[in-house]
Amino acid sequence: MALQIKNKQGFIEVFGSLHGPNMNVLRTYLESEFRWNDYLTLSLEKLRDLDRTTAQELEQFYLKAVKKNQVLSIIGRNHTPVSSVMENSKTDYILSYDRA
Question: Nearest to residue 93, comparing CAs of 70, 68, 53, 63?
């Protein structure tokens, strides 16, 4: 399934599968949004799946945002297709607790 990105005033929802080339699309999109905003919320709750490499790339993007004093809240802790991969790759600490 192709990646679909919806933005509702800084609340970004991602639909489909997040792998390799799709991560490049998401990274480019987030970088362009960070040009105008210092705070973004990224929801992974509608993803069908992602792989370990993509989870690590999300972590690197998150850490890059932190270094620039930007806030990236990533929602998806309660969504099993996301949380299980993030836990296995030890990147689940970047997931927000906002929707517990």
Answer: 63
